[in-house]
Design a protein that fits this description.
Strand order of the largest sheet of chain B: 1-2
Helix content of chain A: over 70%
Strand content of chain B: under 5%
Radius of gyration of chain B: 26 Å
Order of helices and strands of chain B: HHHEEHHHHHHHHHHH
Number of strands of chain A: 0
Number of helices of chain A: 11
Distance between the termini of chain B: 63 Å
Helix content of chain B: over 70%
Largest interface: A-B, 101 and 96 residues
CATH architecture of the largest domain in chain A: Orthogonal Bundle
Radius of gyration of chain A: 25 Å
Structural class of chain A: mainly alpha
Largest sheet of chain B: 2 strands, antiparallel
Number of helices of chain B: 14
Strand content of chain A: under 5%
Oligomer: heterodimer
Number of strands of chain B: 2
Structural class of chain B: mainly alpha
Largest sheet of chain A: none
Chain lengths: 290, 325
């Protein structure tokens, strides 16, 4: 066997160190690269959007095709309405499903429900739109705010269920036992003690879910459709901010492009306030163990 | 009066047996109903799509996948260009996003100083919060023109002898769609693989360090092998997201049902053709064909998700919920 000289050994050592340093650099570089599109997108949305953003934009109906001016007031109200409908269906179902996963220990059924809700959260949102179309639009024979809201509810359901589950699991068993020992029925224990204790965390999850559906476009294209008037009822098509942005973005009109940027600014602000706000709130409330 | 009797007296006054007895079964019923709603929803989704797609499945059979003619007027439908565009755009996105995401995940879970970890992770996750239609808008007006002016002509001039880089550049096309897709799936892949790298046991790392491994060698020997199932799961989930992503792709891919060798050429994807044609379709074979496309996409994403969840479960990642979409 040949003995390695000290110099060879040293060289080998230095090479390994260099490789390690290079790897470190590449990894740090990828983190920097990831930040470039984020900064660019936010910067463009702010600078291009702010020019067209004014009171008219926020409060007025779209101008007729060919005319300039007008706004996205109806789309903003429409979006709020769709989110409201989605919350009305998605929140109770989601929270209750989360309660099932965390509080009712029936291993086999829980496993199935957990797996399916995870899989449901991976279903492309446009497929959910097609599904709601076949169930609601085909039977009601019209596009409607209701159909749009239901599509969004389906999308938020798994998120709400899984965060609720996770938050309920953080509540110590001692609280449940204490309450049950006092003779309080199980359902009161869950509603008044467990859910109340985990309330902040569940609220965070709900806000994140709302932030996600607020920006959804694809499932609304053929459920809520769009409209150039103020919302006229649950059974009528309704405009929404994301769909309006899409329509304006692919139109040939300069003025509409401007408005698409302004709409994006409003939408991004809405989504960021919901998601960043909830995260900051959550970070303050409970220190997660990670 | 003894303490026990006192307590008993108080409880007797407070507890209303009738409500207590009714409350529990009613509440359990509601809870089970909610849990079942998720099962029913998934089953109904597959069933309804299959039902509405049936006329097209009957008419075209397996030929639907391999035929490339899509003509609503003649009522002839084939999915090949859409399947091609969907798969190629997603794979291109993966090629760009996976190395970057893994770099980020390694940096965030192993190399970065503690104070930097969570703000940096937070910023990367912000990418996931931006709505897809905003990516599309930015893509149309900023990214696609930029790519069409700089990157694409450069590649075309220098590597044009390879067919995939050949041909005229338009800006909008398969390549632009892939770049935006890559940005969009970056947070998914990096968040989940970061989580599984973090779950690698500390003893292994310390053992590697004790043997004199450099930081990179430690990652390679003691972190990556154990995190591998989680990383593969993360990549599959990213692929699932890319395949189903609609708005940004629709706005950037060019929407032309053609199969070209060049990645700069316009193409079409399953989600895009549904987004473009579904609202205008009335009934008949055209709708059935579109729903069949949706069904194909649904089945693919269901299988991918199932596979990914099973893989990630192995490394016990809890970032799945967040990275799901």
């Amino acid at each position: 066997m040949k003995m390695k000289t000290l110099a060879q050994d040293n060289l080998h050592h230095r090479r390994r160190q260099a490789v390690s340093r290079l790897a470190y650099l590449l990894c740090a570089l990828s983190a920097v690269i990831a930040m470039v599109p984020l900064i660019l997108i936010l910067a463009y949305v702010v600078f291009k959007g702010i020019g067209a953003l004014n009171i008219d934009f926020l409060t007025r109906l779209p101008a007729p095709v060919g005319e300039t001016g007008g706004g996205m007031g109806n789309a903003i109200i429409g979006s709020l309405m769709l989110i409201g409908i989605a919350a009305a269906f998605g929140l109770p179902l989601g929270v209750l499903a989360g309660v099932f996963l965390a509080e009712y220990r029936s291993p086999r059924l829980s496993w199935v429900v957990r797996l399916l809700s995870d899989i449901l959260s991976g279903v492309p949102s446009i497929i959910v739109g097609v599904f709601v179309y076949t169930v609601l639009v085909l039977t009601m024979k019209r596009f409607s705010a209701l159909a749009g809201g239901v599509a969004l509810a389906v999308l938020m359901l798994p998120t709400v269920a899984r965060t609720t589950e996770e938050m309920l699991r953080m509540v110590p068993d001692a609280l449940r036992e204490a309450s049950l020992a006092l003779g309080i029925p199980r359902w009161r224990t869950i509603v008044s003690i467990v859910i109340k204790t985990a309330g902040g965390g569940i609220l965070t999850g709900i806000m994140l879910a709302l932030a996600r559906i607020a920006g959804e476009t694809a499932p609304l294209l053929f459920t809520a459709l769009s409209s150039r008037t103020w919302p006229r009822g649950l059974d009528q098509p309704v405009a929404s901010l994301p769909v309006q942005i899409y329509t304006y973005a692919i139109s040939p009109y300069k003025d509409w492009h401007q408005q698409a940027w302004a709409g994006s600014l409003v939408l991004v602000l809405m989504v960021l306030i919901l998601s960043v706000g909830s995260k900051l709130y959550f970070g303050r409330k409970i220190k997660p163990a990670r | 009066m003894s303490l026990v009797a006192q307590l008993r007296g108080k409880l007797a006054v407070k507890a209303k047996p009738a409500r207590g007895k009714l409350g529990d079964p009613v509440f359990s019923g509601l809870v089970f109903l909610a849990a079942f709603s998720i099962i029913i929803l998934m089953a109904l989704m597959v069933y309804k799509l299959a039902q509405v797609a049936m006329p097209s499945i009957r008419e075209f059979g397996l030929g639907f996948i391999s035929s490339s003619e899509w003509d609503p007027v003649k009522e002839v439908f084939g999915a090949e260009p859409f399947i091609y565009g969907t798969i190629v755009s997603s794979l291109l996105a993966l090629i760009m996003a996976v190395p970057l995401s893994l770099g980020i995940a390694i940096f965030l879970s192993q190399f970065a100083p503690r104070w930097l970890q969570s703000p940096l992770g937070f910023v990367v996750e912000l990418l996931a919060a931006i709505p897809s239609v905003v990516y599309g808008l930015w893509g149309i007006f900023v990214l696609a023109p930029f790519l069409g002016r700089t990157v694409e002509p450069f590649l075309s001039d220098h590597l044009g002898f390879i067919p995939i880089f050949a041909g005229p550049v338009y800006g909008v096309g398969l390549f632009a769609a892939s770049v935006v897709l890559a940005i969009m799936i970056l947070p998914t892949i990096s968040a989940i693989s970061r989580e599984s790298m973090r779950n690698a046991p500390r003893e292994q790392k310390e053992a590697a360090q004790a043997l004199g491994a450099t930081p990179w060698e430690t990652v390679r020997i003691a972190v990556l092998p154990l995190a591998r199932p989680g990383i593969i799961g993360a990549v599959i989930l990213g692929l699932g997201r890319a395949l189903g992503e609609t708005m940004a792709v629709t706005m950037l891919i060019g929407n032309r049902p053609e199969i070209s060798a060049s990645i700069f050429a316009p193409a079409y994807s399953i989600a895009s053709v549904i987004a473009n044609e579904f609202a205008e379709v009335t009934a008949g074979l055209h709708m059935a064909a579109l729903v069949e496309l949706a069904l194909i996409l649904l089945v693919i994403t269901l299988l991918l998700n199932l596979l990914a969840r099973l893989l990630v479960q192995k490394t016990g990642s809890r970032a799945l919920r967040k990275g799901g979409r």
